[in-house]
Design goal:
elongated; 95 residues; mainly alpha; Monooxygenase
Length: 95
């Protein structure tokens, strides 16, 4: 692999890492509180966008986007799970 290609990959992973951190911080905050702290629609749009971008990344064979979108998809799905669990718990408490 040429030095230019390696530099582009490093740049891509650095950018993806910074982008990922905003979701990572939010995810940790939600885990700490054991509930999603962002509106539900945000997560559905995130899953939709992430799915499409992951497909795009796979077609393009772009490892930076594949790793980034696959990781994000897991976090978005986890938050949807936390929202559903919280709703079930509230319904159980209210009878």
């Amino acid at each position: 692999m040429a030095k230019t290609e390696i530099a582009i990959l490093v740049l891509g992973f650095a950018g993806q890492s910074l982008f990922f951190m905003r979701f990572f911080v939010q995810w940790l905050y939600s885990e700490k509180h054991r509930r999603s702290m962002i509106p539900t629609a945000f997560w559905y749009f995130s899953i939709g966008g992430s799915s499409l971008l992951l497909i795009y990344a796979i077609i393009r064979k772009d490892i930076v986007f594949i790793v980034g979108q696959a990781t994000g998809f897991f976090i978005y799905t986890r938050n949807i799970y936390l929202i559903a669990r919280e709703k079930r718990e509230r319904e159980a408490e209210n009878g």
